Every structure is written in C-alpha cells, then in structure tokens.
Amino acid sequence: ELGLWDAIDQHRLSPFAYYGIHDGLDLRQIPWRRGRGYDVEGLSNVLTSNDAWARHVLAQLVSRVDDPRRMRALGFCVSVEHARFMARVFREADGPAAAVWGDSPADERTNAIADLAARRINALFSVDLFNEGIDIPAVDTLLLLRPTDSPTLFLQQLGRGLRRLEGKTVCTVLDF
After folding, report:
1. Which residues of the chain have pLDDT under 70?
2. How high is the pLDDT of residue 132?
3. β-sheet bridge partners, residue 123
4. Partner of 171 for a Cys bridge, out of 11, 19, 153, 161, CB 3.0 to 4.6 A?
C-alpha cells in the first residue's frame, strides 16, 4: 500500500497544484438525495442555463494555468449536455475542445484522447467516462466541474492527472 503523498514524494505520481474555487452558484433549489447526490437534470440546467458560469471557469483557468493554449485538460461534467456545453464555450473562446461520454463511439473516444495528447485539442470534457480505468499521462490540467461527495470518485478523478510524463512538472487542479 502506498499513500498519495508518499507516491508523489517517490516520484511515482506527478505533484499537483489544487485550487478549490467558489463559483457562486446557489444549489439550494436543486433536489439532493442521500446516496445519489444532486438531481442530474436540475444541476445540469443550472450549469448550462447561460455562459456566465462557463466564462467564470475560463477566467479562473487563464489566471492559474501558465499557457492555456499548451495545456491538456480533462473536464469532468455532470451530464452529456454539460460536457457538450463546456466544449462549445471553450471552442468559442478559441480553445480547441471536444466532448465524449459513454455512448460516444469507441473510435471517437480514442481519437479524442489522441487529439488531447497531441495538443490538437486543449480540453476534453466527459461525463462518467474517465473516472477510472484509463491512463492519459499527457493530462496536465483537471477541471472538476461537478460536485461529488464521494472521496473515492474524487481520488479517481484526481488520479487522471497525476500520471507521470517526461516534461510534466505539475498537474493543475481547478475544483469548482
């Protein structure tokens, strides 16, 4: 057994810079159920109702990532609609981006991962797809764009950016 901090100290995982960012959203009207979390449709509607929240994400990213045009970001979204929305907003801000999810064809997912690694896109948004079981060492930025009260899910998502890669000095984590 090897803990997270020991793995970083032993250079088995990349170090990370974590930013917990208050996004100003009022989620009190979104139904929440023990063991299931927020109502996905309600949360997705709040996150995609206008571009203001997404622009806040972009502004925070620009202020914390040295060169957003060189980053390789993986964004974790609450729904397919949210993933598509974020990819659109990033593209409109001149940031090449894509969105994939469980029902995306396998070749589309594979191509999106290859495009991210090759910097043909700077951000790849997904929903319930890259939480575990995938190794994308090129990821150097994580955008946690959905709430979770599961420590296991949080660590799995964090782990997507901690894979070592030559030249990668840190993984920037923006947790909204």
Report:
1. 131-133
2. 65
3. 73, 97
4. 161
Cα separation values, 135 from 46, 81, 138, Å: 31, 25, 9
Residues ≥6 apart with Cβ < 8 Å to 128: 101, 102
| Torsion over CA: 135, 141, 145, 150 (sign) | positive
Q: How far apart are CA 150 and CA 13, in angstroms?
A: 22
Structure tokens at 166: 């030559």
User: Could you tell me whether strands 171-175 and 16-20 are parallel, antiparallel, or unpaired per DSSP bridges?
Assistant: parallel
pLDDT tens profile 1-18: 878 888 888 888 899 999
Q: Are 121 and 115 in contact (CB under 8 A)?
A: yes
- Alpha carbon distances (Å) from 78 to 6, 32, 38: 31, 14, 10
Strand pairing report for 37-38 and 32-33:
antiparallel
Tokens 């940031």 -> residue: 95
Quick check: 79 and 30 in contact, CB under 8 A? no
